[in-house]
Amino acid sequence: MEFCIVTAAAGSKKDAERFARLIRRKFNGLHRDKSGFKLRFVTDGDVVRAVFEGDVAAYSFAKRSISIREKLSLALAEYVITEKEADIVRRLVSREYDFTDTEDQTVIVESCLHLLSPEIEGTEIRDRRCGQLAVHIRSYLEENSELNLDGFIAFRMKEYMDQIRETLDYVVDEYLLDKQYEEFIGLLKYFVHFQETQIGVVHLIHMGGSEFTIYNEHMMPLEAAVGGVVAQIADNELELGDVIVSSLISLSPGRIVVHTLEPEVQIISTIRQIFGERIEMCEYCPRCKAFPGGGRKHGNQGP
């Protein structure tokens, strides 16, 4: 007789095959089980069922059924995370976030799935999520002989869904910040494009870390023009009042020579975005030796 039935949505034949394949993998050799347990799969439209059968009157039924529920719970948990999680994320983005643009939705879904991937999430966290799912599924199967997997996830797996929502919230926040940043950079680029040049050349000296100094073409500090040459820039942040960016915009130079051993830091990348073709990156000129770190070229120690 049937003692356990698991139903899952299958939008295609391949979905049904993946479900069956993962379950079978956990129960390889069940057909040879002397306790009389059998496993078969039934596909009906967009639904696939895993049907476990066994003789409840058999002496070993109780003990063997416990083992089967444990294996099945783990198999279903793995199936949810590896096969269903992408659909869950897409559904949450569509229903719970106000993004009407398909491109926005796609970026958010892909970013969330990237964070939930084994490479980024890590084996330990992924195994813990899978284990938590398996415990809840097993608990349900101990009291019920039928399980609708999709309904179970939606209505009984609050902890699991909250973990997904937490990751999505983080992704959405970062995405919105990035969009605001890009819009702000665009406005600054537009302003600089139509701004008249007021000084021919300035040298932007990166002193290391987040410290910068501005000099004119004769390598004299531009203290009077800038009102404070050294600027402390908060990494990964850009506000209209940030000293270096606002100083360069106020000076409106025709050319900006950037002297740095760290050309990839965020603030330099931002300056390059804003000023575009006006930027000239110094490839370690003699002037650089006069400044802190000047004896090093691209990480190599000088004499």
Sequence-ordered SSE layout with sheet pairings:
Layout (H helix, E strand, L loop, with lengths): L1 E8 L3 H14 L11 E7 L2 E7 L7 H36 L5 H14 L2 H4 L1 H21 L2 E3 H8 L1 H36 L5 E10 L2 E6 L6 H4 L4 E2 L10 H9 L1 E7 L6 H10 L3 E3 L14 E2 L2 E2 L2
Parallel strand pairs: 1-4, 5-8, 8-9
Antiparallel strand pairs: 1-3, 2-3, 5-6, 6-7, 10-11
Helix pairs in contact: 1-2, 2-3, 2-5, 3-7, 7-10
Q: In a few lines, what is going on in this structure?
A:
The protein is of the alpha/beta class. It has helices at 13-26, 61-96, 102-115, 118-121, 123-143, 149-156, 158-193, 223-226, 243-251, 266-275; strands at 2-9, 38-44, 47-53, 146-148, 199-208, 211-216, 231-232, 253-259, 279-281, 296-297, 300-301. Helix content is 51%, strand content 19%.
In spatial order, strands of the major sheet run 7-6-5-8-9
- Assembly classification: single chain
Query: Radius of gyration in whole Å, from Cα?
Result: 30 Å
Head-to-tail CA distance between termini: 84 Å
Salient structural properties:
303 residues, alpha/beta, 5-stranded mixed sheet, 4-stranded mixed sheet, 10 helices, elongated, disordered C terminus
Characterize the structure shown.
With 303 residues, this protein is an alpha/beta fold. The chain has helices at 13-26, 61-96, 102-115, 118-121, 123-143, 149-156, 158-193, 223-226, 243-251, 266-275, and strands spanning 2-9, 38-44, 47-53, 146-148, 199-208, 211-216, 231-232, 253-259, 279-281, 296-297, 300-301. Strand 8, helix 10 (266-275) and strand 9 (279-281) form a beta-alpha-beta unit.
